[in-house]
């Protein structure tokens, strides 16, 4: 079984002295030589242009008229700057991306909290158990990582219908939480196994029950793993399109950012004054969050994907 | 469990009671997670398997038809077209994503601020929903998109990036690679930073050129990570759905319909639910085989790592 290491960058930040000296000069002399190489600069130039131009187009065209977008897509709209379409997008009654923020955020918070509440104790019980039986439970959860969500979403509808949660927010939350459990439990178990059992024994001797031991002693020690899981789940749920689209029909009146965009843009795909402002509204929170939490997000998503 | 000899009956009884309480507590801690995961993930898979053996159309009573649906998986033209498209996207996309990932990881492996910035530039689409990226690129590549309008200024005929069967799949693969290769860059950089500097110095002293160092020393050192990344990319691309919805809508003339797209399109027409779930189950099996392959590779890696 894989033992999860806390993300190396964070460890390195905490213990700068513990890093082998050899790893620091990974840059060193080779690096200085490299930075002068024209091939490298060409590579980085291409990378920058290709990655950033679409986002640049998204930003400048959100503030132009349709005619201006068609005539000069690449120009910065100094003269023809207009907030009209952005304003219309913000207050549009037809499809409301800003309204989608609230509902999506609610989903993210609900799923995050429930995932921690369910996955935490379960992972603790699995990690601390010496029985073979319990290890089978871990395998049972791991099997869930093989299931392509989109492929089984239709049967999920039938199951929700049977238990009376079809087309409800509760049903969507239940499905989303269940889909986060396998990877979360796997990451938590790996992390809890790195925490010495003596800590639990000490807590037991001091009279703490198992739940109390977990929530007051072990859980605070799991911070790196919890942060990783929260980032994975939050970004996953925020960007999820297929579950809300299929488990909440438009009649429910609830739109996430993605389903609102789908409802709107598929209707108005030729009206670029609707497309660009709404897409910018949909992308902005994520990109700002990414810039702000870049290091955590990159290491969290990478660890989660590789170990999960 | 080794029982100590010479225990009194009372001691034995106390022990058994303690152990019973322990397993009851474990069960209580795991119960809620196991229950939710079973109802929302495992049961739907069971339902899918059952439905795939029937001719259910979504309304009338279903008749059990055994493996008939599976027999048709390969001789139905739309299904085999979808397989061809999915296979093409997965293989070509993966090769490009891993290749570009390696090139840029080698260029950006040093620990410097500039390198971190460029890594983030390569990575950022990974946190944006694929649906939204698809709409953004559709607005750029469309007939009235920024690229075609710019070409028109130079008197060049518009290119049907998304409306010409020859180009649509290429555009789709291009956007998928654009959005996904940054993940590999980050993954490979993390692996490259664990390659000991002494090894590279030794190779340089032995007179190896920079290219030789990269191809003969560095890439073999991170080969296991590259293998895992390859399979992860394949598993991800086999399930491609959101981006197809927003970029091409499966068109033109169904030339970009991936397997997941087909499954969901079929399930909603309410015609061949049984057949569509058979396709879903088949997709699940392919995903599971690939995922098991990753797990096996990882275990081999871990053994190699601990054995070293």
Automatic annotation (TrEMBL), chain A:
Transmembrane helix found in the keyword field: yes
Membrane topology value: Multi-pass membrane protein
Localisation per UniProt entry: Cell membrane
Key words of the record: Cell membrane, Membrane, Transmembrane, Transmembrane helix, Transport
InterPro entries: BP-dep_ABC_trans_perm, MetI-like, MetI-like_sf
Disordered: region residues: 1-32
GO biological process annotation, one example: transmembrane transport
Biased composition (Basic and acidic residues): 21-32
Keyword Transmembrane helix: yes
Record-linked PROSITE patterns: ABC_TM1 (PS50928)
Ranges annotated as spanning the membrane: 41-63, 101-126, 138-160, 172-192, 213-238, 275-293
Pfam families cross-referenced by the UniProt entry: BPD_transp_1
Main location: membrane
Coiled-coil portions: none
Residues in ABC transmembrane type-1 domain copies: 101-293
A cellular component term, taken from the record's GO annotations: plasma membrane
Family statement drawn from the similarity comment of this UniProt entry: Belongs to the binding-protein-dependent transport system permease family.
Protein's UniProt name: Carbohydrate ABC transporter permease
Organism for this UniProt entry: Streptomyces tabacisoli
TrEMBL record, chain B:
Keyword check for Transmembrane: yes
Transmembrane parts of this sequence: 25-51, 82-108, 120-147, 167-192, 217-238, 273-294
Taxonomic path: Bacteria, Bacillati, Actinomycetota, Actinomycetes, Kitasatosporales
Protein name: Sugar ABC transporter permease
SUPFAM superfamilies from the UniProt entry: MetI-like
Membrane topology: Multi-pass membrane protein
PANTHER family in the record: ABC TRANSPORTER PERMEASE PROTEIN, DIACETYLCHITOBIOSE UPTAKE SYSTEM PERMEASE PROTEIN NGCF
UniProt-annotated location(s): Cell membrane
């Amino acid at each position: 079984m894989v033992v999860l290491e806390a993300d190396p960058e964070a460890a390195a930040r905490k213990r700068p002295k513990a890093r082998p000296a050899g790893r620091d000069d990974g840059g060193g002399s080779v690096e200085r030589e490299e930075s002068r190489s024209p091939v490298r600069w060409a590579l980085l130039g291409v990378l920058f242009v290709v990655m950033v131009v679409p986002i640049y187009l998204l930003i400048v065209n959100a503030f132009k008229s349709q005619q201006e977008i068609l005539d000069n897509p690449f120009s910065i709209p100094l003269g023809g700057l207009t907030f009209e379409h952005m304003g219309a997008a913000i207050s549009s009654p037809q499809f409301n991306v800003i309204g989608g923020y609230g509902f999506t955020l609610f989903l993210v918070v609900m799923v995050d909290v429930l995932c921690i509440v369910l996955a935490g104790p379960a992972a603790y019980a699995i990690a601390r158990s010496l029985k073979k039986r319990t290890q089978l439970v871990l395998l049972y959860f791991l099997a869930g990582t093989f299931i392509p969500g989109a492929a089984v979403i239709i049967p999920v509808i039938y199951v929700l219908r049977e238990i009376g949660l079809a087309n409800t927010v509760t049903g969507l939350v239940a499905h989303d939480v269940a889909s986060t459990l396998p990877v979360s439990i796997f990451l938590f178990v790996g992390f809890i196994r790195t925490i010495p059992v003596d800590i639990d024994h000490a807590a037991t001797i001091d009279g703490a029950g198992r739940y109390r031991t977990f929530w007051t002693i072990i859980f605070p020690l799991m911070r790196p793993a919890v942060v990783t899981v929260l980032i994975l789940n939050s970004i996953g749920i925020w960007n999820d399109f297929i579950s809300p689209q299929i488990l909440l029909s438009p009649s429910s009146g609830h739109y996430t950012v993605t389903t609102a965009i789908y409802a709107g843009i598929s209707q108005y795909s030729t009206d670029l004054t609707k497309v660009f402002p709404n897409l910018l509204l949909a992308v902005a929170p994520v990109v700002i969050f990414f810039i702000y939490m870049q290091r955590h997000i990159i290491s969290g998503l990478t660890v989660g994907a590789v170990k999960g | 469990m080794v029982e100590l000899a010479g225990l009194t009956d009372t001691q034995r009884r106390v022990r058994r009671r303690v152990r019973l309480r322990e397993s009851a507590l474990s069960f209580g801690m795991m119960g809620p997670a196991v229950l939710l995961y079973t109802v929302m993930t495992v049961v739907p898979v069971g339902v899918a398997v059952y439905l795939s053996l029937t001719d259910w159309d979504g309304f009338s009573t279903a008749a059990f038809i055994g493996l008939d649906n599976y027999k048709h998986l390969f001789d139905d033209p739309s299904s085999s077209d979808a397989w061809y498209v999915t296979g093409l996207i997965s293989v070509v996309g993966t090769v490009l994503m891993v290749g570009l990932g390696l090139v840029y990881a080698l260029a950006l492996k040093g620990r410097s601020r500039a390198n971190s910035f460029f890594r983030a530039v390569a990575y950022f689409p990974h946190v944006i929903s694929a649906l939204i990226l698809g709409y953004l690129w559709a607005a750029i590549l469309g007939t009235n998109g920024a690229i075609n309008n710019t070409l028109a200024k130079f008197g060049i005929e518009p290119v049907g990036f998304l409306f010409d069967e020859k180009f649509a799949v290429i555009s789709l693969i291009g956007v998928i690679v654009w959005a996904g290769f940054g993940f590999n860059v980050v993954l490979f950089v993390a692996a490259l930073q664990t390659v000991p500097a002494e090894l590279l110095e030794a190779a340089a002293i032995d007179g190896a050129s920079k290219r030789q160092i990269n191809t003969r020393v560095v890439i073999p050192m991170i080969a296991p990570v590259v293998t895992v990344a390859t399979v992860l990319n394949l598993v991800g691309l086999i399930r491609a759905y959101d981006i197809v919805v927003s970029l091409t809508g499966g068109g033109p003339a169904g030339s970009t319909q991936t397997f997941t797209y087909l499954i969901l399109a079929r399930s909603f027409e309410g015609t061949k639910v049984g057949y569509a779930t058979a396709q879903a189950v088949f997709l699940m099996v392919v995903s599971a085989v690939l995922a098991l392959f990753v797990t096996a590779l990882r275990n081999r890696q871990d053994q190699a790592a601990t054995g070293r």
